[in-house]
Design a protein that fits this description.
Elements (H helix, E strand, L loop, with lengths): L1 H27 L3 H28 L5 H21 L4 H4 L19 H15 L9 H12 L5 H17 L2
Length: 172
């Protein structure tokens, strides 16, 4: 408990000060069209396309059973971590940050579930030699969308990438 409180009070609060400014800056230059397309990337592509991809690739034997199960367990894992750490989302901590995402289903932000899921798929496909490293653009777009839409801090996204890498190594 002491370690968690120390991290949240000392490290994250000072980091979030800078991240609030970055998010506000990014949002100040975002047009309606950019927000619309980022919302589509964050919702439609994430929810529908990625789910369809993992089912098809599993049926084609591109994922092991352990990898496939982990892909379905990643959301409960991130939810558990979020509820242990309990870091509020940027728009809750700073009223100047707008929430443009209409798909928020939980209160807490660290780690980003979208980022963890997208990068877990990327790392597994990369490990299985199905794609090359240049396909990183889609998970990166999801990360950028989460920050621009005001749903996550940069540290939430980085935490999601690290968690995804750790999980992918566990099933390698």
């Amino acid at each position: 408990m002491f370690i968690k409180n120390f991290l949240i009070e000392n490290i994250t609060n000072s980091t979030y000060y800078y991240e609030h400014n970055i998010i506000k800056y990014i949002q100040s230059y975002a047009t309606y069209d950019i927000i619309y397309y980022m919302n589509e990337i964050s919702s439609f592509i994430y929810n529908k396309i990625f789910m369809l991809i993992i089912i098809i690739l599993y049926l084609l034997n591109y994922f092991t059973t352990k990898q496939f199960i982990l892909l379905w367990l990643v959301h409960p894992i991130t939810w558990l971590i979020k509820n242990l750490i309990k870091c509020n989302r940027p728009y809750i901590n700073n009223y100047e940050i707008k929430l443009f995402d209409d798909n928020i289903i939980d209160k807490y932000s660290f780690p980003s579930g979208h980022t963890t899921f997208c990068f877990l798929i990327y790392f597994i496909l990369l490990d299985n030699k199905i794609i090359n490293k240049y396909y990183i653009i889609l998970p990166l777009l999801v990360c950028i969308s989460r920050i621009l839409l005001g749903a996550h801090y940069i540290t939430d996204v980085v935490g999601g990438i690290i968690l995804a890498k750790i999980l992918s190594l566990l099933v390698k």
